[in-house]
Amino acid sequence: MPPASDIVKVAIEWPGANAQLIEIDQKKPLASIVREVCDGFLTVMRSSSSLIDLCVSVCVLQNRGDIKNGSILRLAISPMRAARQLLERIQSHGIDARLEALKELAKLSADPSFATEFINMEGLATLARLVESGTQYESYIPLFGEMLAFTLTAFLELMDHGIISWDLISVSFIKQIAAYVNQPMVDVSILQRSLAILESMVLNSHSLYQRVAQETTVTQLITHPQVSNQEIQTYAIALINALFLKTPEDRRHHIIRVNRPVKAEMAHQLYVLQVLTFNLLEERMMTKMDPNDQTQRDIIFELRRIAFDGDSDPSGTEKRKAIYIKDYKMLGFTNPVNPAIDFTQTPPGMLALDNMLYLAKVHQDTYIRIVLENCSREDKHECPFGRSAIELTRMLCDILQVGELPNEGCNDFHPMFFTHERAWEEFFCVCIQLLNKTWKEMRATAEDFNKVMTVVREQITRALAMKPPSLEQLRVKLRSLSYSEVLRLRQSERMSQDDFHWSQRIQPEILELIKQQRLSRLCEGSCFRKLGNRRRQEKFWFCRLSLNHKVLHYGDLDESPQGEVPFELLTDTIPVSDIKAVLTGKDCPHMKEKSALKQNKEVLELAFSILYDPDEALNFVATNKYEYCIWTDGVSALLGKELGSDLTRSDLDTLMSMEMKLRLLDLENIAIPEAPPPVPKEPSTYNFTYNYG
Fold it and tell me: Which residues form a coiled coil (predicted)?
């Protein structure tokens, strides 16, 4: 008599027959067990399938040790026979029979044993031929769309077993699948399967990656994520992601490398892809938690279990409830009696709970450290994890504009979100660690919660503005943006802003001062060279502005004067009201003459002309750059135009700096003399000097 542990009682089912309860001795050879089972169903099996096929099916069982008392074992046709029958029905001419066969094939293809037999019978090649020749039957075969959907489903399931390589797929098959994706109007189920097949091609074969990239473009694919069907959005975004991947290793891990600058059109497509990817979170963001839903409450309980390792519950309902309330309070929930209430506000809704669970499971050490760190602090300085995670999720949704439509012409995408297939969750994990770090740096209390969140928002937006290429780079940039650094940046920006407002207030005064200096200098007048036809210096001439700024006086001189020239000697005049404009350099009339271009560069840089009515010009060549700037600025001031010379910019910077320094001096109760103090007399001797020699 075998030990009781070796005997298991199971129910055996067979289509068309009643279930039978039998005992199986696990110590017996597998062949003997199969014979006993078959003897019980011999009559039924003779009418439906061969004993050999059944034995082959049962003998492949490798997990007989997992059979427990009360298990239900279902006998079925062997994979070999099932594959043969389905292949015959698929190749039949009856439309209804073929449809039913394809529908059954879509279900059975997930089984590895069946898939192996079906592929060995060239079944996969048969499905590929059906797809390749699909367009010629589409117009007149009834139920063609439904048949094609089941065909593509079975094809994808069979290929996912990895029995044969994707590289064996024909070019015509790829073109046909790409055609379904590129069509503006195609059945939803066909589009879903086609997108999934193309993604698998890209992820599993470098050569097919190149072929798929030729057959379809991001511009064509970008319309699919904008539909309302969430499955199509997911498949389309996954395919677009895969098409951007640069290496087979990256493609296997859904990682996009956007290391080089991209063109504006591509940048906009990446931005749209980023927005649509985040919009997939909108449903969870706007889903409220049902406080009475035990399944959802179990997720919160899992957060507690991971944090406090509560595998064994204390005895007694009241005692257990008190411990749960204490633990939920340490987790930082606002409602420790029923923390599910914390997730009833939208946004962020259930999305916050999803983020917390991801952190707890994927980054368990970090999660436990954050929770336990705050449990061990003084009550007034503990950071409430639950409340912080919920508010942080809401903040991130707002920063990344989750749920909003893409803006036309916007290219503001973040490369780091294309470097991880769970980029949103990883982004949250980085930011929750930042929040905990900032809370400690600020030595915050519960009353400072909103202040901390404001600082964290500023840290995140500043880091995102730097466009970090990866999540690791984001960590580095956030690490450098400590609370003290944020305060320093705020102060620096505030001072710059104050300086700007201050300069805007005093700049008009300084410009007016410069303008008056220029006009005063024109009133003193200047001597200029007078050029002959051969560009030789022949005589001097002098020009000055009248004291009332209404007339320009000028006239020839035999030699360069030593001081001001009286107005009586300047016989020619030009009313300022007649002046039209001032020209410089090559635009001057006297620089456009035939031989003028032979003048050296210095002459061109010092030349300017005053145009006045009726179509006359007074031509100048200044003696140096300073005189050139003085006169061009002075004439511009007379015309009411902006002073644009280099000298004006230099003077403006110098005077602005001096004025600001003077105004910042503490001169209260100090008398400033109207006149400069006298220069002291020279000393009688210089014997106080030291000879370094």
Answer: none
Nearest to 49 by CA among 12, 76, 20: 76
Specify the pLDDT at position 50.
Answer: 43
Q: Who contacts 260 (Cβ-Cβ below 8 Å, separation ≥6)?
A: none
pLDDT surpasses 90 at 521: yes
Half-sphere exposure of 120 (CA within 13 A, CB side): 12
CA 369/CA 406 separation, integer angstroms: 38
Cα–Cα dist 142/278, whole Å: 40
* pLDDT tens, position by position, 501-520: 777 888 888 999 999 999 99
In this predicted model, which residue has the larger pLDDT, 325 or 14? 325
CA atoms of 245 and 311, how far apart (whole Å) = 43
Bigger pLDDT: 75 vs 349: 349
The more confident residue out of 46 and 228 is 228
DSSP-derived 3-state class of residue 675: coil
Instruction: Retrieve residue 403's tokens.
Output: 């749920």
Question: From CA 315, how far away is CA 334, in angstroms rounded?
Answer: 26
3-state secondary structure of 334: coil
CB distance 104 to 83 below 8 Å: no
Do residues 360 and 307 lie in contact, with contact meaning Cβ atoms separated by under 8 Å?
Answer: yes
β-bridge partners, 611: 581, 617
Residue 449 pLDDT greater than 80, yes or no: yes
Cα(457)–Cα(444) distance, integer angstroms? 16
